[in-house]
Specification:
The complex is a heterodimer. Chain A is α/β, with parallel strands linked by helices. Chain A has 15 helices and eight strands. In chain A, the strands form two sheets. Chain A has a five-stranded mixed β-sheet with strand order 1-3-2-7-8, with helices on both faces. A three-stranded antiparallel β-sheet of chain A has the order 4-5-6. In chain A, helix 3 crosses helix 5 and helix 11 crosses helix 12. About 4% of the residues of chain A have low confidence. By secondary structure, chain B is of the alpha+beta class. Chain B has one domain. Helix content of chain B is 34%, strand content 23%. In chain B, helix 4 packs parallel to helix 8. Classes of the chains: A alpha/beta, B alpha+beta. Chains A and B meet through loops of A and helix 6 of B.
Chain lengths: 395, 247
């Protein structure tokens, strides 16, 4: 598999009917979308699906106005202890197994078992796994199976797949990123004394944050830095999408990437509570609301166009950026019904050219705000969305 | 015959008496059990010290840190030093880069090479913001052995009234991590400076060995503590000799 950055370009200038998207004569702005990735060790929950649909709408809408690169590399994050430890646990406890017959839920149950075991594998036990990932993009068959099933969900939902199954190593090695950050005065490396490596933005009043532990194990923030420190400054705008719980780390990341020369926009998304409670996938109990289950339920009843639009209406406009509303099957069904009505073309459609429609929802930045764009589809006393908008962004 | 354990106990008892004479009325510092109870009480109280110093470390190089620690200690006013002594010169070691902190925090001393900086000693509350921003220094690696080095301390201080002297500074390395070494040496040096054992222009010959050589004594100052395996078994971790006159 090839290394890839998935880039979508704006339509050629000749087709651009509205000039204010990009000033005349200016090169297309370049936008990098870098959402947090989901660890392929469990089914996709409503919280995961929300983040993925937001990113997908942002990507497809912004790609009409700018040159957009959607960076989503599972390869980069396999190196976290959470993933390597799971793989080591599987091989130690389950051993040789054909995972191809297992469902995401089955593999998720194994993950819950790993987390509840509470045992931390030593660096020596994880090293063969880390080396295999770094050297030739190896993926444990359990995670490969999960990624394969996710790719099928993406296809069904019409989501752009930025390389779930591709080998996409981060641009910088761990030592390279430590060197670069050190040169910028933003790294405190105390490994020589038996201590960890810290990301150091104390100059800006942000607390010291460990990125590599004393045993040499990098955490997910080290992986994000390996991926983005060199990449982000090459874009006019870098959009970071992440869960609200990670806000302190992303404030730190924003500051770090800015020091490295990037222009950063943060988009914070609340998780989706289940029965009023925000639960981590590591505890399991995903039951009937995994993405697979939702697709099986709604997919039997609605056609693909309704499914795709309805899911986006619910997870973006319905749930919004916050986390006040619990997931409700009934509310999802209502959104699917709204989608069916929007697609029935019983109203006059918006005659404005697509770039103009999309530009209304950009604000002061280059990327299109998925919430504003999607909420506008539902506004009363407005023309219905044009078929062009629906096919470019929602179907 | 007096064993070294008895000598060490007497030394520890002396330190406790200097810092907290009232503890001598609560514990029988002359017995092993009484001393151990007193030390446990001190350890308990240390987590709630009223007066403490903070040392921010970017890098650790033994001779450079010895020099900077003495320079820091010499700046402490006698009244502050007395209060600090009552909390057994408690010092918190934090990982941090002083260069990144000087815009936001006032330090009482910064090492010449910027590798370390000190705040206090002061009320613990005075360093809360700094301690929240940084993390504890994790010096879990074994203390590396280096060749003997001569460190000239307080070279820039007024030396009127006292001729510089030369002493050996012995540092044990066997089973000693960098973090342990910092704690032991810090107590020894800051108390030696306060007591005038180390003064302007003095030269310290830093010598590392697995265990402190008893033959190197008599000592002007000794740092004694239990070992991690046996808290009741005392060991000398670092010591300053009496003045030496050979080259």
């Amino acid at each position: 598999m090839q290394t890839s950055l998935h880039t979508a370009s704006a339509p050629a200038p000749a087709r651009r009917s509205h000039a204010d998207a990009v000033p005349p004569g200016a090169a297309h702005p370049r936008v990098l979308l870098a959402p947090i990735t989901v660890t392929p060790s469990k089914p996709l929950t409503p919280s995961h699906l929300k983040g993925l649909l937001w990113t997908d709408v942002m990507y497809r809408a912004t790609a009409q106005l700018a040159e957009v690169t959607y960076r989503y590399s599972p390869t980069t994050y396999h190196l976290t202890e959470q993933t390597l430890g799971f793989w080591e646990h599987l091989d130690r406890t389950v051993g040789d197994t054909d995972y191809s017959g297992l469902t995401e839920e089955d593999i998720g149950e194994l993950y819950v078992g790993y987390r509840s075991e509470g045992r931390r594998a030593g660096p020596a036990a994880l090293r063969p796994y880390a080396e295999a990932v770094e050297l030739h993009g190896w993926v444990h068959p359990a995670s490969a199976r999960v990624l394969q099933m996710w790719a099928a969900h993406y296809a069904r939902l019409g989501m752009h797949d930025a390389g779930l199954l591709a080998h996409q190593p981060p641009e910088l090695g761990l030592e390279e990123v430590i060197d670069r950050l050190g040169a910028a005065g933003m790294c405190l490396d105390q490994r020589a004394y038996g201590g960890p490596v810290f990301l150091d933005a104390t100059r800006y009043g942000l607390p010291l944050r460990q990125i590599v532990d004393a045993g040499g194990r990098p955490n997910y923030l080290a992986c994000v830095l390996r991926e983005l420190v060199a990449l982000a400054p090459r874009f006019d705008e870098t959009v970071l999408l992440y869960d609200r719980e990670l806000e302190p780390d992303y404030l730190l990341l924003e500051r770090t990437l800015s020091v490295c020369g990037a222009t950063v926009r943060r988009v914070t998304l609340g998780r989706v509570p289940i029965d009023g409670e925000i639960r981590s996938a590591r505890h399991g109990d995903w039951h009937d609301h995994t993405t697979g289950a939702l697709l099986r339920g709604a997919g039997a009843e609605f056609d693909d166009a309704v499914l795709r639009l309805g899911m986006r209406l619910y997870f973006i406009a319905g749930l919004g950026p916050g986390q006040q509303q619990s997931f409700r099957h009934e509310a999802l069904r209502q959104s699917l019904a709204r989608a069916a009505r929007l697609l029935s073309h019983d109203r006059a459609t918006d005659p404005a050219p697509l770039p103009e429609v999309l530009s209304r929802h950009r604000g002061a930045h280059l990327h299109v705000n998925p919430y504003r764009l999607t909420s506008a589809l539902l506004a009363r006393h407005r023309p219905a969305p044009s078929p062009e908008l629906l096919s470019a962004v929602y179907l | 015959m007096t064993t070294s354990q008895e000598l060490f106990r007497a030394q520890v008892a002396r330190r406790i008496l200097t810092a907290r004479p009232e503890l001598a009325t609560r514990f029988d510092l002359l017995t092993a059990d009484g001393l151990l109870s007193a030390r446990r009480e001190i350890t308990r109280a240390a987590s709630d010290a009223k007066v403490l110093a903070v040392c921010v470390l970017r890098d650790f190089d033994l001779p450079a840190w010895v020099r900077a620690t003495c320079a820091f200690a010499a700046r402490v006013e006698p009244s502050a030093a007395a209060n600090w002594r009552r909390d057994f010169t408690r010092t918190v070691f934090l990982a941090g880069n002083p260069v990144n902190l000087t815009d936001r925090f006032a330090f009482d001393h910064v090492a010449d090479d910027g590798s370390a900086a000190w705040q206090g000693p002061a009320d613990a509350g005075a360093s809360t913001a700094l301690r929240r921003l940084l993390k504890l220094f994790d010096g879990a690696a074994e203390l590396p052995t280096r060749p003997s080095t001569v460190v000239r301390v307080l070279a820039d201080r007024d030396r009127r009234g006292r001729a510089p002297v030369r002493r050996e500074l012995h540092v044990a390395t066997a089973g000693v991590t960098i973090a342990n070494c910092l704690v032991h040496l810090n107590h020894l040096l800051v108390e030696a400076v306060a007591d005038g054992i180390v003064g302007p222009g003095d030269e310290l010959v830093v010598r590392q060995a697995p265990w402190l050589p008893a033959s190197a004594g008599p000592f002007a100052a000794l740092r004694i503590d239990g070992t991690s395996e046996r808290p009741d078994h005392l060991r000398a971790y670092t010591a300053l000799t009496e003045e030496i006159h050979d080259a």
